[in-house]
Specification:
alpha/beta; binds NADP nicotinamide-adenine-dinucleotide phosphate; Alpha-D-Glucose-1,6-Bisphosphate, Chain A, domain 4; Rossmann fold; seven-stranded antiparallel β-sheet; 2 domains; 512 residues
Length: 512
């Protein structure tokens, strides 16, 4: 790294100077009334130019690499470019307002910075080098008179901040983060219920995120298929992956909602490569038809996020005669995932992410009553059993497809403030509303499992806030081998028996 800092002279030394120097010092003091500080830092990273540019130019991700930043917020819609604006909240308690004034793809971006303490002009230059990319950051800070008199302390601090930001950027771009391991402390807290359950709230999210690393893996050449993308967590995941540059296919059951969603995501993120597919995922003929269309299109699926879900009270039956929780939450993602195996196999770093629920902890799979026909029906129990079934499938697929490099994980979003929770659990929603996370916070782990480099190293596990959690809290919910085998056989049979004789072709594409 190279540094070039012009620091102010310590004004308290003036008394020691002879008269001629005092005059010079006064002239310098005048200049000091609006003191300029220049930082110039360079890093070299072993990543292609376009990947580095894509990561840095979406400046709201600055919080991932600059340790002084609490969060970056993109304030203008569209892809990064001239006139993009960002609010950057510093951990020190003040905010910076960034505006891009010059933007050359894969070459440079120039930004003005406004804040209570200084104004600045920051330029980031990018250049392909023999080993990857060279990134140079040049910033000229102007301090108004009162702050300029702070003598050395402020510029020295600024220099440290600049250096650590560039070191953080280098680390983020190197993307060599540790493989996340299971923690005994977390598992014990989960088993004690209360210490575990507070993590489902927004407080748990905030506590965990302090340990997170950057997601700088390039998504521009990856394709994500997301179910239940028109609301809540699925919509938030779609937004995050679109902003990361991935190509998206969103599965929705309502054409108007899908159209609106695609237009909204394109407008907000500038990512135009967003298409949608229509399917009611509780109806297996529609799930099969969706698979047929996707298989015919033959595009690799790098990320499959099985997210669509709902909680049904009272018991409902689909037109095909399946209990609805079982159909939507278990049979449908099983058919979709297994039939899309050839497309997953074609991807470079394929991931399947199953969105489950902490509710699963309370239930064991009931292989002889998968459709809740016996005893009194409870929507929450049927929901939890179906999620438990998908956890078993997560483990099964992870093992079965390990040789193909297909990584399969399940996650719990915590308790997030979504239309689904408000409608299905109004009492719970009223009591916990102030503790619920945002949909974006709930969706984060699904996006991380799908997109980050380190998440590709672990398969078949259950995650909350990017941390591994046990899939059972008690032996009581653990299925036997024969129960597992029976579940697999039943799902296999149903996948085959629901295959329509003549699949309809109904692929709708908004933009590619
Ligand atoms: N929010 C939480 O706190 C929480 C906690 C644990 C687990 N989860 C899980 O997270 C996932 C997302 O839930 P959410 O809270 O985001 O709920 P949400 O806001 O109700 O979103 C559910 C999504 O699933 C879609 N969907 C529902 N039934 C469908 C069907 N038959 N065919 C196709 N799509 C269907 C919905 O489409 P429409 O827009 O057309 O309704 C919507 O896009 C679910 O699997 C849920 O079990 C959520």
């Amino acid at each position: 790294m190279q540094t070039n800092t012009h620091e102010p002279t310590d004004v308290t030394c003036i008394v020691l100077y002879p008269p001629v120097l005092i005059q010079e010092q006064r002239a310098y003091d005048a200049e000091l009334m609006s003191k300029t500080l220049t930082l110039d830092e360079t890093i070299d990273v072993q990543r292609p130019l376009h990947e580095v540019f894509a990561y840095v130019s979406e400046f709201s991700r600055i919080e991932e690499w600059d340790p002084a930043v609490a969060r970056g917020i993109k304030q203008t819609p569209g892809a990064p470019g001239v006139d993009s604006e960002y609010q950057v909240d510093m951990k020190a308690g003040f905010s910076l307002q960034y505006r891009v004034i010059e933007f050359e793809e894969n070459a440079r971006m120039l930004m003005t910075v406004d804040s209570r303490f200084f104004t600045a002009l920051e330029e980031i230059r990018f250049k392909a080098s023999r080993k990857g990319t060279r990134v140079r950051y040049i910033a000229k800070f102007d301090f108004p008179a009162p702050l300029a008199a702070f003598n050395r302390a402020f510029p020295a601090a600024m220099e440290r901040v600049g250096k650590s930001a560039m070191a953080g950027l280098k680390e983020a771009l190197e993307d060599k983060f540790d493989v996340p391991r299971a923690s005994r402390i977390l598992a014990t807290a989960d088993r004690l219920i209360l210490p575990g359950i507070w993590r489902f709230t927004k407080l748990g999210y905030r506590e965990s995120r302090r340990r997170w690393e950057a997601i700088s893996a390039f998504q521009g050449d990856r394709h994500a298929l997301i179910t239940g993308a028109t609301s809540g967590l699925g919509k938030a995941a779609a937004h995050q992956l679109a902003a990361l540059g991935a190509r998206l296919t969103l599965v929705a059951r309502d054409g108007n909602k899908a159209e609106e969603l695609v237009a909204e995501l394109q407008e907000q993120t500038g990512n135009q490569r967003i298409a949608y597919e229509i399917a009611d995922l509780s109806v297996m003929s529609e799930v099969h038809a969706l698979c047929d269309r996707l298989l015919a299109a033959d595009e690799p699926v790098d990320m499959l996020i099985n997210n669509a879900g709902a909680l049904f009270n009272p018991r409902q039956q689909t037109p095909e005669g399946f209990e609805k929780s079982f159909a939507l939450l278990l049979l449908s993602p099983c058919i979709l995932t297994e039939r899309l195996y050839p497309l997953l196999q074609k991807a470079e770093s394929p991931r399947v992410v199953n969105v489950l629920s902490g509710g699963m902890y309370s239930q064991k799979i009931r292989v002889n009553d998968l459709q809740s026909q016996r005893g009194e029906y409870s929507g929450s129990v049927a929901y939890a059993r179906a999620k438990r079934g998908l956890m078993i499938m997560t483990e099964e697929w992870a093992e079965r497809w390990h040789k193909d490099g297909i990584v399969v994980n399940a996650m719990h979003p915590g308790w997030a403030d979504t239309p689904g929770v408000e409608t299905a659990l109004p009492g719970f929603y009223r009591i916990t509303k102030r503790l619920l996370r945002t949909p974006a916070e709930g969706a984060d782990t699904a996006v991380w499992l799908a997109a980050s480099t380190e998440a590709a190293q672990v398969s078949g596990k259950f995650w909350l806030d990017r941390e591994q959690h046990p899939s059972h809290l008690s032996k009581r919910t653990q299925e036997t081998r024969s129960e597992r085998r029976k579940l697999l056989e039943t799902l296999d049979e149903l996948r085959e028996s629901t295959l329509p004789k003549e699949p309809r072709r109904r692929r709708k594409t908004s933009a590619k």
